[in-house]
């Protein structure tokens, strides 16, 4: 018997795999993740353009941070380090760039291929402290891997 969470995860993976193009896949990832949990209050995808992360699409209150230099924020750190960053209390992290005053915790997962090429990242904010546990991390990393495959398929 498959748990509902696993079924939702598989469905989201399939939607990303079968989206008509990369743009659709990126939008499906955001709305699919936003629909997954009431704790995900803002979901967005940034794409790396040179040394800047540029917001591609979002679900939630519009963020003022539509362009983030790689040198700044949790977003910049996750892309530079090519690693997932989970912050249980953003008020305690000096790297944090505030998007909404209600935000308390955040996860940022880079979209990176096996060769280490960074295409962008998935960023999720929650108004609850410590909202992102191992299951959330697994889900978002699965979505990032599915998107990385789409970038590879679309690339030169
Ligand atoms: N908090 C992010 C900035 C993006 S907003 O959360 C949408 C950061 O610290 O990089």
What are the SSEs and their pairings?
Blueprint: H1 4-18, H2 22-36, E1 42-49, E2 52-59, E3 67-69, H3 73-81, E4 85-87, E5 105-112, E6 118-126, H4 134-154
Antiparallel strand pairs: 1-2, 1-6, 2-3, 4-5, 5-6
Bound molecules: methionine sulfoxide.
Total number of helices: 4
What is the subunit organization of this protein?
single chain
Radius of gyration: 14 Å
Strand content: 25-35%
**Model regions low in confidence, pLDDT < 50 over at least 5 residues:** none
Q: What strand order characterises the main sheet?
A: 3-2-1-6-5-4
Question: What is the CA–CA distance across the termini?
Answer: 41 Å
Bound molecules: methionine sulfoxide
Mean pLDDT: 94
Q: Total number of β-strand segments? A: 6
Which bin fits the share of residues in helices?
25-40%
Q: What is the H/E string? A: HHEEEHEEEH
**What structural class do helix, strand and pairing data support?**
alpha+beta
The major sheet is characterized as: 6 strands, antiparallel
Question: How would the global form be characterised?
Answer: globular
């Amino acid at each position: 018997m498959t748990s509902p969470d696993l079924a939702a995860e598989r469905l989201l993976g399939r939607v990303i795999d079968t989206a008509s193009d990369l743009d659709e896949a990126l939008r499906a990832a955001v709305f699919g993740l936003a629909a997954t949990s009431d704790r995900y209050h803002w979901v967005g995808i940034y794409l790396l353009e040179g040394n800047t992360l540029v917001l591609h699409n979002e679900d939630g209150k519009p963020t003022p941070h539509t362009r983030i230099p790689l040198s700044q924020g949790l977003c910049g750190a996750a892309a530079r380090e090519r690693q997932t960053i989970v912050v249980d209390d953003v008020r305690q992290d000096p790297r944090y760039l505030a998007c909404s005053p209600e935000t308390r915790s955040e996860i940022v997962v880079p979209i990176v291929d096996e060769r280490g090429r960074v295409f962008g990242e998935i960023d999720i904010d929650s108004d609850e402290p410590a909202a992102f546990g191992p299951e959330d991390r697994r889900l978002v990393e699965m979505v990032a891997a599915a998107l990385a495959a789409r970038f590879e398929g679309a690339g030169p």
